[in-house]
Design goal:
Blueprint: E1 14-18, H1 28-37, E2 44-48, H2 50-59, H3 64-75, H4 78-87, H5 93-98, H6 105-112, E3 127-134, E4 139-143, H7 148-155, E5 165-167, E6 170-174, E7 192-196, H8 213-235, E8 240-242, H9 257-263, H10 267-282
Parallel strand pairs: 1-2, 1-7, 2-3, 7-8
Antiparallel strand pairs: 3-4, 3-6, 5-6
Helix pairs in contact: 1-3, 1-10, 2-7, 6-7
Length: 283
C-alpha cells in the first residue's frame, strides 16, 4: 500500500531545473508526474531549451499527465509533426538559397505550447525563469519577466535550426551553449533542488558511416553542453540529479515522441524514490 503524500504545509520548498537536450527532454514529463504522485508542486522552475518549453507549461499549473497529453496531441503522429514543420517552413528566399533554412522559434513555440498558457510571466502561479545566451555579449541571460512565449522562443533558438530572438536589445540564442542545466538559477529559498540532465551523447550513425554536417554540428553542441555540466558539478551540486535513459535518442527525434516517452518512463519511479528518501531524511 502506497503511503499518503505528505501534507502540502510540511513539504519543502522544491526547485526544479529542466535541462536542454532536444527531443530527449520529453522525458521531463515523467519527472513532473512523479512529483504529482507525491503530492508536491515546485516552488520554482528554471528551464533551458526544451526544459524551458516544458517548464513553462508546468509553471502555468499543468500536471505531468496534462503536459504528456499535450505532447501526444502535437507530436503523437509523425504525419502531424511533418505537417507542422511544413506549415512553419521558412519562406525567405535568402534562407532557401543559402541551403540552411532557419525556422522562426516564436512560431514554433506558438504552434506547440498549449493555448491556455498565459502570455506574461506575471500570470504564472509558479516562479519560472528561462535561460538563453546573449550572442553578441557572449553571456548567459536569465529571463523571468515579460512575454513568456518570447522568452521560451529565445531559450530554444538552437543555431543552424532557429533564428535568434531579439529581447530588450539583445540577440538571444539557445541557452544550452551557456547553461544547459540551470539549477544555479533557482531562488535561494529553495530547500531541495531536483535537476534533470537530458543532454546525453551524440548518437552513433549506423555501421561505419561518418556523421553528416548537421549531425556533427548537433553532436558538437552536445559535447559542449556535457563539458559545461561536468565543470559545474565539480563546484556545486543539486540535491537530486536525474539522468533519464536517453542515449540512442536523437536531438531532433520529435517524430518518435511515443517511443521516447515509453523508453524513459522508468524515470518516474526513480524520481519518486529519490525525493522520498530526502523527505524521510528531513522528517
Amino acid at each position: 500500500m502506497t503511503a499518503a503524500p505528505p501534507p502540502q504545509s510540511s513539504s519543502p520548498h522544491l526547485g526544479l531545473a529542466l535541462g536542454g537536450g532536444g527531443a530527449r527532454g520529453l522525458a521531463h514529463v515523467h519527472v513532473l508526474s512523479a512529483l504529482d504522485d507525491l503530492g508536491l508542486k515546485p516552488s520554482a522552475i528554471a528551464g533551458c531549451s526544451i526544459g524551458a518549453l516544458i517548464g513553462a507549461a508546468a509553471a502555468a499549473g499543468l500536471s505531468g499527465a496534462e503536459i504528456e497529453d499535450e505532447i501526444l496531441v502535437a507530436l503523437g503522429r509523425p504525419a502531424d509533426v511533418w505537417g507542422k514543420i511544413w506549415k512553419l517552413r521558412p519562406r525567405s528566399l535568402a534562407e532557401i538559397v543559402s541551403g540552411l533554412p532557419l525556422f522562426d522559434p516564436e512560431a514554433v513555440v506558438g504552434e506547440f505550447l498549449p493555448d491556455r498558457l498565459p502570455d506574461d510571466f506575471e500570470a504564472l502561479p509558479i516562479r519560472f525563469s528561462a535561460v538563453a545566451a546573449d550572442f553578441y555579449g557572449t553571456s548567459e541571460v536569465e529571463i523571468s519577466a515579460g512575454s513568456l512565449r518570447r522568452a521560451v522562443a529565445a531559450s530554444i533558438a538552437l543555431p543552424a535550426l532557429f533564428r535568434p530572438v531579439e529581447i530588450g536589445g539583445l540577440t538571444l540564442i539557445d541557452g544550452g551553449v551557456v547553461n544547459p542545466l540551470p539549477f544555479d538559477r533557482l531562488p535561494h529559498d529553495i530547500d531541495l533542488i531536483v535537476a534533470v540532465d537530458v543532454v546525453g551523447t551524440p548518437v552513433r550513425p549506423e555501421k561505419s558511416r561518418m556523421p553528416g554536417a548537421r549531425e556533427a554540428l548537433f553532436g558538437a553542441s552536445q559535447i559542449l553542453m556535457q563539458a559545461l555540466i561536468t565543470e559545474k558539478l565539480k563546484s556545486r551540486h543539486p540535491g537530486i540529479l536525474i539522468r533519464p535513459p536517453i542515449n540512442g535518442i536523437g536531438v531532433l527525434d520529435f517524430t518518435k515522441a511515443r517511443d521516447i516517452l515509453a523508453a524513459t518512463a522508468s524515470v518516474r519511479e526513480e524520481v519518486k524514490a529519490a525525493v522520498g528518501r530526502r523527505l524521510d531524511a528531513a522528517a
